[in-house]
Amino acid sequence: MATYLVAGGTGVAGRSVVAELVRRGQTVRVLSRHAATPAAEVEHAAGDLITGDGLADAMDGVDVVVDTTDGKTRATRAVFTTGAANLLSAARDAGVSRAVLLSIVNVDRGTFGYYRAKTAQERVYAEASVPTQVVRATQFHEFVPMLCAPTSKLGLIPAFTGTRFQSIDTSDVARALVDAAHEGTVSPDPIVVGGPQVLTMREMAAAWKASTAARGRVTSLRMPGGMGAFWRNGWNLVPDNHFGTVTFDQWLAGR
Ligand SMILES: NC(=O)c1ccc[n+]([C@@H]2O[C@H](COP(=O)([O-])OP(=O)(O)OC[C@H]3O[C@@H](n4cnc5c(N)ncnc54)[C@H](OP(=O)(O)O)[C@@H]3O)[C@@H](O)[C@H]2O)c1
After folding, report:
1. CA-to-CA separations, 89 to 120, 127, 130, 153, in angstroms, rounded
2. I want to staple 163 with a disulfide (CB 3.0 to 4.6 A). Which of 1, 39, 106, 231 is the partner?
3. What is the CATH number of domain 3-254?
4. DSSP letter at 63?
5. Backbone angles phi and psi of 216, in degrees to 5
6. Which of 32, 101, 235 to mutate to test the pocket of ligand 1 (most atoms within 8 A of CB)?
7. pLDDT band at residue 37 under the 50/70/90 scheme
8. Burial annotation 112-132 (CB, 10 A radius, 16+ → b, else e)
9. Domain spans of the chain?
10. What is the per-residue pLDDT for 1?
């Protein structure tokens, strides 16, 4: 049995990684800035990747690090660069045997700020002295509802034209990350995991509206900018890869 540090273990993906590790009988410590809900089988270490506070203590006795941190705003994005470098240097000092990073399918083809920051994070991992493995996933099932919910209250549920998603359940992403953490070797190539089906954003928005009884009309819009182009090019898809087992409808039904 190994000891795993899940950096970002209080987040959407991180909580699924913690659950998967507990299910597999591993020792789990969560690292995040804020105290987690206490759970008997999981330790919590308070630490900040950007300042480096708490990282050395958090690494004590750790064999493997899984990084599911996020910096959604420009102000918090340094978690991908300074933060990743601090995490990996603390991991090296503690003799950690491997670190696994959660990233995004085709992230290096994106020209917008968030993807550039994630690509820089992958580079930090590639150059680390600790052996590392990147796992790239398609969008989570939570992603389209997150786009739809805010404006639905104002009567509009966006359905970006020419846009499809191959969304994946975070339990499937967690399975891939924990499998990668268990592998005997690491590869410079990312492991890629996609969801079980490709759906148009309109189909997903309509299914979300039906299952939540959200207000608002599903409305076709053109997403401007680099992100819109990325989606219309289908770069967010890996249609031959159906690692995920839980469909979007099943996820909606289980909420
Ligand atoms: N959403 C998608 O569709 C998708 C698809 C593929 C890959 N991904 C990737 O998956 C990763 C996780 O996304 P998510 O939506 O699960 O994120 P999330 O729910 O926002 O969780 C982020 C986690 O990072 C921790 N964190 C943030 N800044 C930190 C810092 N400075 N020091 C320590 N911990 C910090 C947060 O805890 P505290 O706030 O308590 O510190 C939290 O536990 C991201 O890197 C994202 O790019 C997302």
Report:
1. 16, 11, 8, 45
2. 231
3. 3.40.50.720
4. S
5. 115, 155
6. 32
7. low
8. eebbbbbbebbebbeebebeb
9. 3-254
10. 82
Ligand 1 atom closest to the CA of 79, numbered from 1: 31
Predicted pLDDT at 254: 96
Q: Output the CA 32–ligand 1 centroid distance in Å.
A: 10
pLDDT at residue 39, as a whole number: 73
Going by the DSSP 8-state scheme, the letter that residue 79 receives in this structure is G
Give the helix/strand (H/E) hosting 118: helix 113-126
Could you give the 3-state DSSP secondary structure of residue 91?
A: helix
Residue type, 158: P
| Ligand 1 binding pocket includes 16 (Cβ within 6 Å) | no
* 8 A C-beta contact, residue 10 and residue 69: no
Tell the residue nearest (CA) to atom 34 of ligand 1: 32
pLDDT in tens, 52-86: 999 999 999 999 999 999 999 999 999 999 999 99
pLDDT, tens digit (0-9, with 9 covering 90-100), for 141-185: 999 999 999 999 999 999 999 999 999 999 999 999 999 999 878
